């Protein structure tokens, strides 16, 4: 294995909950419920494999446009997750972070998110980063505004803007770029996820629907990643 194939950070688009449920004649909500259970299994498996960062797309800014019932169910699930499974991961010394447009979430959810981040800030087993109300274009616009503010206030000059400075304006500040980006369910799109950060990520698409995704599927994708040659535009 070359140094290039170091796998520090895996990002996942967890897709296919709805189709998993429809296939068995179940309501979409049960697909999300099963999907949330898989989040826990995969987070544990990733930590055991020594992955340092796992970033999961739990809710996109575009997902707010789903039916009121579905959004409300996802928020109920999220509340349960923040109170239950994430507390368990906390006990396993997993650091928890959230990225996304927090102001769109209810105040009690924002408070639980802030508490979890604060309580786990010194942990280093693995960082589990959950993208909630997240959109990459929105994140980039917000970074542009922060950068412009710094110029306006005279803290930096135009010449100071470079890749490192701009990366620090994103929600993912201090998180290395994903080495591997996985999307489940057969769709082959990035869907407004980590557009800046995935510039050189290796992409992996699997037909497996998220509720059926197992640590064995993850291992197969990791094995394939290890065989890839990463050149970052060089020869
Ligand atoms: C995509 O399936 C999945 C989502 C929009 C939400 C992801 C949420 C979870 C895995 C569970 C909740 C997680 C937490 C942390 C509470 P889809 O509904 O787009 O599936 P479809 O494309 O088959 O309709």
Structure description:
By secondary structure, the chain is α/β, with parallel strands linked by helices. The chain has one domain (3-135, 177-226): 3-Layer(aba) Sandwich (Undecaprenyl pyrophosphate synthetase). It is 42% helix and 15% strand. It contains eight helices and six strands; from the N terminus they run βααβααβαβααββα. A six-stranded parallel beta sheet has the order 3-4-2-1-5-6, with helices on both faces. β3 (94-99), α5 and β4 form a beta-alpha-beta unit. α1 packs across α2 (28-48) and α3 (68-83) packs parallel to α5. It is globular and about 60 Å long. The mean pLDDT is 95. The site of farnesyl diphosphate has 18 residues, from α1, α2, β2 and α3.
Summarize the structure.
The protein has 235 residues and is of the alpha/beta class. It has helices at 17-23, 28-48, 68-83, 85-91, 107-119, 136-152, 163-167, 215-226; strands at 9-13, 53-60, 94-99, 126-134, 180-183, 202-205. The radius of gyration is 18 Å and the shape is globular.
Name the features:
about 240 residues, alpha/beta, Undecaprenyl pyrophosphate synthetase, 6-stranded parallel β-sheet, 8 helices, about 15% strand, binds farnesyl diphosphate
Q: What's the CATH class label?
A: Alpha Beta
Oligomerization category of the chains in this entry = single chain
Low-pLDDT stretches are: none
Shape: globular
Provide the domain count.
1
Secondary-structure element order, N to C: EHHEHHEHEHHEEH
Please provide the count of β strands.
Answer: 6
- Assess the beta-strand content as a share of residues: 15-25%
Specify the helix fraction band.
40-55%
CATH fold description? Undecaprenyl pyrophosphate synthetase
CATH superfamily: Decaprenyl diphosphate synthase-like
Strand order of the largest sheet: 3-4-2-1-5-6
Query: What CATH architecture would you give?
Result: 3-Layer(aba) Sandwich
| Number of distinct helices | 8
Largest sheet: number of strands, sense, barrel closure: 6 strands, parallel
What's the gyration radius in Å?
Answer: 18 Å
Distance between the termini: 18 Å
